[in-house]
Amino acid sequence: MEFLTEIYRGQYTVLQVDTGDSPATIPFYESCSFRRHQLVKNFFTGHYDHPLYECGVRLVDMVYLQKSGGKVSKQKTAASHFSWLAAASVLSWYVMEAVSRLLCACGAHR
Predict the structure, then answer these.
(1) What is the pLDDT of residues 6-36, one digit of tens each?
(2) Which residues pair with 67 in a beta bridge?
(3) What separation in angstroms does the CA of 18 have from each of 9, 66, 76, 79, 95?
(4) If 0-12 CB within 10 Å is exposed, 13-18 middle and 19+ buried, where does residue 78 land?
(5) Cα 9 from chain centre
(6) Which DSSP state fits 71?
(7) Residue 50 has pLDDT above 50, yes or no
(8) Which SS3 state, helix, strand or coil, does residue 99 take?
(9) Would you give the end-to-end CA distance of the chain in angstroms?
(10) For 41, which DSSP code?
(11) Hey, which of 10-19, 20-29, 37-46, 62-71 has the most confident mean pLDDT?
(12) Who contacts 4 (Cβ-Cβ below 8 Å, separation ≥6)?
C-alpha cells in the first residue's frame, strides 16, 4: 500500500478504498493511515444473491476508507485522471483481494 501511495502521490487529493466491514481488512487499512469515511449499510446483503464471507465472517456492510494524498499536479488532465481512476479501481480490487487472502492465511484477523 505504501508503494502505491508513493507512486501516485501528487496525482490525487484523496485515495479511497472500499471493503467489507471485516476484522481482516479494516485494521490493515487503518494501519496504512486510512480512516473510515462512510458506511453503506447492508451493501453485501442487498447487492448479492448469495452470502459473502471473508475469513469466516459474513460481509454485510461496505466501508469506505480514505487517505489524504496532498496536492494534485496542475499538469494532470481530466482524461488522464479518469484513466488513472479506472486503472486504480481494478488495481484496488486486486490489492484488496490479495490483502484479504494474506490476512486470512496468516490468521491476522483473530
Answers:
(1) 777 777 778 888 889 988 889 988 998 889 9
(2) 15
(3) 19, 9, 25, 23, 11
(4) exposed
(5) 16
(6) P
(7) yes
(8) helix
(9) 22
(10) T
(11) 37-46
(12) 15, 91, 95
Whether 43 contacts 62, CB under 8 Å:
yes
CB atoms within 10 A of CB 96: 18
Sign (positive/negative) of CA torsion 18, 22, 25, 27? positive
Residue 8 vs residues 27, 28, 62, 63, 69: alpha-carbon distances, Å: 23, 20, 25, 22, 8
CB 26 within 8 Å of CB 91: no
Residues sharing a CB contact under 8 Å with residue 16, sequence separation 6 or more, in sequence order: 37, 64, 65, 66, 67
Is 0.85 surpassed by the pTM of this model?
A: no
